[in-house]
Fold:
Amino acid sequence: MCGIFGCICKDGNVAKLIHEALKRLEYRGYDSVGEATVFGGKIYVKKEQGKIDEVHKLLNLDDLPGSVGIGHTRWATHGAPRRENAHPHLDCDENIAVVHNGIIENFAELKVELEELGHVFKSKTDTEVIPHLIEENLKHGLPFIDAVREALKRLEGSYALAIITTVEPDKIICARKESPLILGVGRDSMYCASDIPAFLPLTNKAVILDDYEIAILQHDKYEIRRLENWEQILREPETITWTPEMAKKQGYPHFMLKEIHEQPIALRNALRLQDLYLDLMATFLDRAKNVFLVACGSSYHACLAASYMFSKLAYLPTYPIIASEFIEQTGMAVNIDSTILAVSQSGETADTLAAVEYARNRAATILGLTNVVGSTLTRVSRVYVVQQSGPEIGVAATKTFTAQLIVLAQLALRVAKLRGKISSQEIKRIERELKNIPNMVEETIRRNEEKAKQIAEKYKDSKVFLFLGRGISVATALEGRLKLMEISYVPAVAFPAGESKHGPISLVEPGIPAIFICPRDETHKTIIGNIMEMKARGASIISVIEEGDEEIKQLSDDYFEVPGKISEVFSPITFVIPLQLFAYYMAVKKGYNPDMPRNLAKSVTVK
Ligand code: AGP
Structure:
């Protein structure tokens, strides 16, 4: 949830580098920020509550001495967003500074033990036990690195850590368990970070740390060791193909709008994935006795849509499940004949990884779909596919959602082929249609951006929104709702239109905006009936329709038009676009920053 960064250079001050890197990690959490450097036998710290720009104005985060330092941008889990709870956290004698992403589950008992030994705590955080544990081990005469190692062995929970000390001022010690941590190998400099964009302008040479690994960084080298047996791990850097530019706004006011406009490219990339892995995944899906599609948030909505694709194209029943409910809802039914397709753009979502871990322990086969090379999901999957959407910085998923859909569509098509459920002509037709979807998305954005601004302006004072769809459009409705809620903070409900008579229609009163997603598919006729029911009770009808759908256009107060004809099973890819734009412009009209919605963060690495 938080972003950590560490930097060690041959010479010169690193504070400015750390400040800039934290800016590139701010989407991971932004309720407080801090930096620490070690210089002349002393640790220097600057930290405060608030966004990075605000704190920089107050404290000047570029002004700390020394060529070794660490930094942190926070998403509070333990201890309110206040200065004393901001990272870095220090030991009693201020010789050790620690930044942490994750949760130390047994911190309370460790804190009691350390307080009984005389340690004084300044914060309400779980993290602060770490520098005090190391300090206690130093008091027992352990060399610094052993003091860190013994401290880590006492921690339960998840962590990505970067540690500096006056005891060994030319080093940064970092360690990882469950939370992501990547090393950046520069010329005469080394970096560690929660995410690749943090050091991308400095180097594209990255080394992914695994769980239970410690790395000792010096300006010209790095050493990786396994926590339990101290075995040395030799791991060469990988070259990252993302350019720093890809992680910048490129003239757009927000990353979210840039990423909405990047969807045609992301979709084309997702159509160029390696056949080998898609076929392998299709084979596992075809052979499985039961298939669970497991994810959270937008990725779950992609799984829900995929369950319609697998059923309609391949006659394969699949069970889309929200990851945080997986174990409770279906855990006992998971066994060696089960296949889990876990979908996560970050590849680090704790709820999804916990479901995967549970299933793995029951001998199920794990397949993974993610956007991040080297993420945890890639390392716990039997087969995985990286969807190649490039870095997504905006907290609200857009390009990664539509790219997930087109990858899942290709998987469904391959399972259909394997099962002989589809003729070779139909396969060719569908492949042509998939190839054309990026162009349709391009045209949909061009046609609806202005419209989205106008409709957002018209309904900006609405107190609630309804989102309705039938069939696969239920997934589109849920995703449209999530986008609007998460960045414009307007309450919204989404449900299958067929459910409205069983309760939700009671919400309708004159002027309530009801957004209907209406591709021209088998559900078209029935959804017209649902529109009429709502209209009769005074709802303002906003519809997302196929180009030239006069019937629903007549019934609508406002509408978005999606150009061209699209098969029902692919319709969420184009029909969600106007809803992304609508949510974006609603947030902007309300004066909110769509990139950094309150209380949220890009990668949810705690359960
Ligand atoms: C979507 O806009 C949100 N950022 C959030 O719901 C997200 O989809 C969810 O946290 C899952 O993230 P993942 O795809 O990285 O696992």
User: Anything to note?
Assistant: The chain has a mean pLDDT of 94.
